[in-house]
From TrEMBL:
The active site is at C165. One of its GO terms (cellular component) is cytosol. InterPro entries: 3-oxoacyl-ACP_synth-2, Beta-ketoacyl_synthase, Ketoacyl_synth_AS, Ketoacyl_synth_C, Ketoacyl_synth_N, PKS_Beta-ketoAc_synthase_dom, Thiolase-like. The keyword Transferase applies. This is 3-oxoacyl-[acyl-carrier-protein] synthase 2. Residues 3-414 form the Ketosynthase family 3 (KS3) domain. Keywords: Acyltransferase, Fatty acid biosynthesis, Fatty acid metabolism, Lipid biosynthesis, Lipid metabolism, Transferase. The lineage of its organism: Bacteria, Pseudomonadati, Bacteroidota, Cytophagia, Cytophagales. It comes from Dyadobacter luteus. Transmembrane segments: none annotated.
């Protein structure tokens, strides 16, 4: 059978470096760090006391107070990003076949803040413990997709993907497949996370996964640097409007890029550590390039998983060198987590947006905070250290890897019409 083409016609973002797409992209290109001391709660008891929080956000500027109270922050972030993306796409919903419009979202954790608050309230409740009647619908991860679906009346496939830090990328892959198989015309897809909480910080500190560079938060996320000491926790999300090409063309839509492939693999190795030889990372890139029907040499830019962990960064680089061979040294590679921190299940969405914008503007966002070369990492690689670089970008690849050994990647191509 012949597959339908899938294009991106709208984007929205709520991130630690910008609360909309233009601000997010401007700050990525400028190399702005979103890391700072935590403001939401007293973090003094933790080894890590900073994160990449969303800043300057009044939820009630976007969602009426009564509605917002029924949502965990990760769902609020999803709604805000989706509203921007829908507005950007310019739909006349009266002319949209709502039975073929859906929502496929990603979140690795879901309503962590809600769960934490309700358990604390219960423990302090004495003889008459009380739970919020919205506890369960606020906490469950699929609430984000359900709320967005209800908001726009989308009656097509609506669900959420949960695969740790690969969640949003898996959501994009599912949306891509539903559309190219003709089961949907339009899908709001992406991911969000809101894990900057006591439980989130405490849990990741217990895993020894987070940077502890409290004296310099803005330089703590330093992928591929010799002195990296862990990732910086981030929050927020992004939404992409995926649309069937003929459907988009018929309504005269603005087209950012074409999505041409998605792939997955599993490490089958360890619950938190990547395979030491990058086997799963190698296979997911191979599967994604084959799915896109292109040659590895056609990739111009990779937005890496690049979390700034001592173990993870070199494994991804090994996989890139093994899969791309000599072409690995001709591409640009960067980790935008050096600026946004790690949005966990929402990471794949904001990084997909970064790839699409790199294609649109022909510029590579940098990997900031590079101070010392790592002898384990080949200096021939162009890791776009510290400053953005202009170059021709026709095709970009985004990698995401999650606890449990889940790997997912997507490929976007410059839109060139028929």
């Amino acid at each position: 059978m012949s597959f339908k083409r899938v294009v991106i016609t709208g984007m929205g973002a709520l991130t630690p470096v910008g609360n909309d797409v233009p601000t997010f992209w401007k700050n990525l290109v400028a190399g702005v760090s979103g890391a700072a001391p935590i403001t939401r709660f007293d973090a003094e008891k933790f080894r890590t006391r900073f994160a990449c929080e969303v800043k300057g956000l009044d939820i009630n500027d976007y969602i009426p107070r009564q509605e917002a109270r029924k949502m965990d922050p990760f769902t609020q972030y999803a709604v805000i990003a989706s509203d921007e993306a829908m507005k950007d796409a310019g739909f006349d919903t009266d002319k949209l076949d709502l039975d073929k419009a859906g929502v496929i979202w990603g979140s690795g954790i879901g309503g962590l803040k809600t769960f934490e608050d309700e358990v604390l309230n219960f423990s302090e409740g004495g003889r008459n413990p009380r739970f919020n009647p919205f506890f369960i619908p606020k906490m469950i991860a699929d609430s984000a997709s359900g709320v967005i679906s209800i908001r726009y009346g989308f009656r097509g496939p609506t669900f959420i993907t949960v695969s740790a830090c690969a969640s949003a990328t898996n959501a994009l892959i599912d949306a891509f497949n539903y559309i190219r198989l003709g089961m949907m015309n339009v899908c709001i897809s992406g991911g969000s996370e809101a894990a900057v909480t006591n439980a989130g910080m405490g849990g990741f500190n217990a895993l020894k996964a987070l940077s502890e560079r409290n004296d310099s938060p803005e330089t703590a996320s330093r992928p591929y640097d010799k002195d990296r000491d862990g990732f910086v926790l981030g929050e927020g999300g992004a939404a992409l409007i995926l649309e069937e090409y003929e459907h988009a063309k018929a309504r005269g839509a603005k087209i950012y890029a074409e999505m041409i492939g998605g792939g997955m693999s599993s490490d089958a190795y360890h619950i938190t550590a990547p395979h030491p030889e990058g086997r799963g990372a190698y296979m997911v890139m191979k599967n994604t390039v084959e799915n896109a029907g292109i040659r590895p040499e056609e990739i111009d830019y990779i937005n890496t998983h690049g979390t700034s962990t001592p173990i993870g960064d070199p494994q991804e680089i090994k996989a890139i060198e093994k899969f791309f061979g000599e072409h690995a040294y001709k591409m640009n590679i960067s980790s935008t987590k050096s600026m946004t921190g790690h949005l966990l299940g929402g990471a794949g969405a904001i990084e997909a947006a970064a790839c699409i914008l790199a294609i649109r503007d022909q510029i590579i966002p940098p990997t900031i905070n590079h101070f010392t070369d790592d002898p384990e990492i080949n200096p021939r690689l162009n890791l776009t250290f510290n400053k953005a670089q202009k170059r021709e970008v026709k095709i970009a690849l985004s990698n995401t890897f999650g606890f449990g050994g889940h790997n997912a990647s997507v490929i976007f191509k410059k839109y060139e019409g028929d």
